[in-house]
Amino acid sequence: MRKIKAIIKDLLSNFLYNAQRNKQVIADKPSDVHLHVTDDCCLKCKMCDIWKLKEKQRNLDYKTATKIINKLVKWLNNNFKLTFAGGEPFLNKDFIKIIDYAHKKGIKTSTNSNAYLIDRTLAKKIVKSGLTQIFLSVDGLEKEHNFIRGRQDSFQRITKAINYLNEEKTTKNSPTIFINTVISNNNYTQIKKIIYFAKKAKVSGINFQAIMPNFASDYKKDWFKSNPFWPKNKEKAVKVIEELIQLKNKQPDFILNSTLDLKNIKKFFENPELFQETEKCSVGFNNFMIDTTANMRLCYEMGTIGNILEENPEKIWQSKKANLHRKKIVKCQRPCKLLPCNNLQIINWLKRYFKSFGKR
User: Fold this and answer.
1) Closest CA to 84 of 261, 292, 281
2) Residue 199 has pLDDT above 60, yes or no
3) What residues are paired with 43 via a beta bridge?
4) Whole-model pTM?
5) Closest to 171 measured CA to CA, from 108, 128, 133
6) What residues form DSSP beta bridges with 207?
7) What's the pLDDT score for residue 11?
8) pLDDT of the residue at 339
9) How many CB atoms lie within 10 A of CB 92?
């Protein structure tokens, strides 16, 4: 049954992608919200420059977070997914309390983590908090992962973290644990082994992302030419993605990407310039981001469209400024349109897609 559901979901994802490319539809009420809780990080990842920032936003404190969540619930009820972002979210001392508050409001929550801080004590707190999902970053087997993450014990820590979480959640079936892997020159030959590691670790699935320009770095259109993590052998990298697509067909519920996601990664590796120029971004049509100062954004790479604590969030969402940002987003030629923030929730998208025909 799970396999059948995964296949149906994959087919719908393909349909939605093509429909969204041809018809950009703004949701009356977004179903995905990203809440930034910290810029701090405990690792020095070579594919990210956030840890190098000299000027960082303050951590999101509990009082501000509850005010933001209350505003969201008043507008969206609890019919949205709240993803906590960073930095490394667990560096924020109020983070567990923030998750717990959102959970008690009936909100589905998710976060990404490098897992470096997750010992048994923290694992207990995470399970108790009611967090719905957690994505843990694994960027290769031990040697490659430790190199990319900049700490020699990083792989050992994440392996233990997964075990702790699995052991602690035996009495409570959450959070669902997933692995997230960024495909790069350093690990694309290990994809099958990483999937095997994920299954052996007893996580519920794995998601793949393509290497992107370093976060918090100055953007250049030809960034991939000088990025040491961009696959050097295009033919081999493309072949690996083709094999990954075949694995997806065999294991549709374990590999979280849709086949279309994987085909887009293949297109990206084949011709990054063409992909950046021709593919459309749909971020900001069904989701938005809130930073630690309560400013709303449609994209992390763009300016604010308003402050959720000082203004009505629904009016901000429907404002001229927001629509101006959306026009810029559709024309944007950066590669981050491959990131998960572009993935649409199927049911919500279908509702607003067919609703839009009634307005003609």
Assistant:
1) 292
2) yes
3) none
4) 0.89
5) 128
6) 180
7) 57
8) 87
9) 24
Residues 276, 285 contacting (CB under 8 angstroms) = no
Mean pLDDT of the chain: 89
C-alpha closest to that of 123 among 51, 62, 172, 59:
172
Pair of tokens at residue 187: 């690990």
Q: Is pLDDT above 70 for 110? A: yes
Which tens digits make up the pLDDT trace of 130-168?
Answer: 999 999 999 999 999 999 999 999 999 999 999 999 999
